[in-house]
Amino acid sequence: MSAAPVIELTGVVTRFGDNLVHDGIDMAIAPGEVVALVGGSGSGKTTLLRHIIGLTRPAAGEVRLFGESLLSASAGAVRALQRRFGMLFQQGALFSAFNVAENIGFPLRESGVASEAEIRDLVALKLAMVELEPAHALLMPAELSGGMIKRVALARALALEPELLLLDEPTAGLDPDRSAAFVALIRSLQRRLGLTVVLVTHDVDTLAALATRVAVLGERRILSYAPLEDTLKVDHPFIQRFFHGEHGRWALARSNAGD
Ligand SMILES: Nc1ncnc2c1ncn2[C@@H]1O[C@H](COP(=O)(O)OP(=O)(O)OP(=O)(O)O)[C@@H](O)[C@H]1O
């Protein structure tokens, strides 16, 4: 594993007032990895994603993205870095006043990299990529199902052809069939596009299907950072509950059966 890390967190400390959320997070993510971040509610998973993309500043420590420090990079360098990742927010975060095509085209218009004709073509391409129909382009977010919202948000996250994709609870709120279909789509896109992926999830099915490594957040630090089969052996109450509780056992049995 000699490739330079896509993401490198060193000694990250996060504090909101008196609430110490992270107390020394170290983690490196190599190109092409799919890392699942798990942890109890409030353990700071979403906040860690926000640090990675520069939306929140840690109180101490360093966050490097593609080898550059987000905290000390110039505004131009930050803009260049922002084009290299896409983020799927928890509820999709679509603009409710824009239709599907306008939502997907938004990053392209914002960055000024494409003409209107190119944007139309790229939007059509991204719609197909997330397995939506051309006719869906004119729908408004309020007219979409939960699964469609996730697909449109994913198409928007991929609009600028990023190398890194961050997914916050990608399957939350989807029924088991839609969830499995969305996971299959993410997996096929990850392989086809060679993406590095970081995902926050509570769902063992999602994690078992996608993750090359699992990072477990707890007690303000990374309790374990290893492939799933090694994570399962870690003797920690949260890890044992999460993976060996009823739902976890089912999910792992299904994934071992080659589902
Ligand atoms: N902007 C903020 N201001 C104050 N406190 C915050 C802020 N963002 C997060 N927190 C606090 O930081 C802690 C971690 O929040 P975060 O949303 O990162 O947790 P999480 O692990 O993603 O939780 P969940 O699984 O419930 O979504 C929580 O205690 C939360 O209340």
Automatic annotation (TrEMBL):
Gene3D superfamilies assigned to the protein according to its UniProt record, in alphabetical order: P-loop containing nucleotide triphosphate hydrolases
Pfam families noted in UniProt: ABC_tran
Keywords: ATP-binding, Cell membrane, Membrane, Nucleotide-binding, Transport
Coiled coil, from the record: none
Example GO molecular function: ATP binding
Domain annotation ABC transporter: ranges: 7-244
Entries under InterPro entries matching the protein: AAA+_ATPase, ABC_transporter-like_ATP-bd, ABC_transporter-like_CS, P-loop_NTPase
Protein's UniProt name: ATP-binding cassette domain-containing protein
Gene source species: Pseudothauera rhizosphaerae
